[in-house]
Design goal:
single chain, mainly alpha, 11 helices, 81% helix
């Protein structure tokens, strides 16, 4: 797993895609910080992180779009599949490489928090809650987008599938404004990402929300493993 993680992380740092992701994420989050916090003189990070969640809908599929299609394009997927390493470790290696890039992109946001700490009054419970929620949300989004990358040979199609999948999870609450059917309400309450992140953004640590994000991550990683395993024996 460590070898796959190092290989994929190096690929991110040596290819334009990794830097395009970093530029997009940092430019968008920096713009939000300047517009929401600096311009309006607001030290509350709640709205900042809520807006940043929508950036992930585009940024995460960009981060994961090449993980599997590039392997199939370069004919290296068979090498990985037949290598003396389990499919689980291979998938986890790719996941942690993408998650490492996600963590790297979060480092500059600490400077924004430091700026607010100097020139404003921070509620550290809210700050910690937002970071915990953001880390959990990022893991779930990466697992979902990886699955979309796993089912196609085209990076562009992988990006589009990942984008629409994350849009569905993030914006499914809008269905409640269209219909009041009981089955739709239950479905939205079951899969809604925004509702569960909202608790973290206010500094509330809900164990059920933590379990939800971790379960979402594990389920989609498991589906990744099953698809690769099926491909291995076909």
């Amino acid at each position: 797993m460590r070898a796959v993680w190092k290989r994929e992380l190096k690929a991110y740092l040596k290819s334009p895609l990794g830097y395009v992701y970093l530029f997009l994420f940092l430019f968008a989050t920096g713009f939000i910080f300047c517009t929401v916090n600096v311009r309006n003189g607001i030290s509350d990070v709640q709205y900042y992180f809520q807006m940043c969640c929508y950036i992930l809908i585009v940024a995460i599929p960009l981060l994961t779009m090449r993980l599997y299609p590039e392997e199939r394009k370069n004919k290296t997927d068979q090498i990985l599949i037949t290598a003396p390493i389990s499919i689980t470790k291979m998938v986890l290696g790719k996941f942690f490489a993408a998650y490492s890039m996600f963590l790297i992109s979060l480092i500059p946001t600490l400077f924004c928090v430091g700026f607010l700490m100097i020139y404003g009054n921070l509620e550290w419970g809210v700050v910690l809650g937002n970071y915990v929620g953001f880390l959990l949300l990022g893991a779930a989004y990466i697992a979902i987008a990886m699955l979309m990358s796993c089912v196609t040979e085209s990076p562009i199609i992988a990006f589009m599938l990942g984008l629409f999948s994350l849009l569905f999870f993030a914006l499914c609450d809008l269905l409640l404004s269209i219909t009041d059917w009981a089955i739709v309400t239950k479905l939205v309450n079951l899969i809604s990402v925004s509702t569960r992140f909202l608790g973290f953004s206010t500094g509330l640590f809900d164990l059920s929300a933590i379990f939800y994000f971790l379960s979402l991550t594990v389920i989609f990683l498991f589906l990744n493993i099953r698809i690769i395993d099926k491909r291995r024996w076909s």
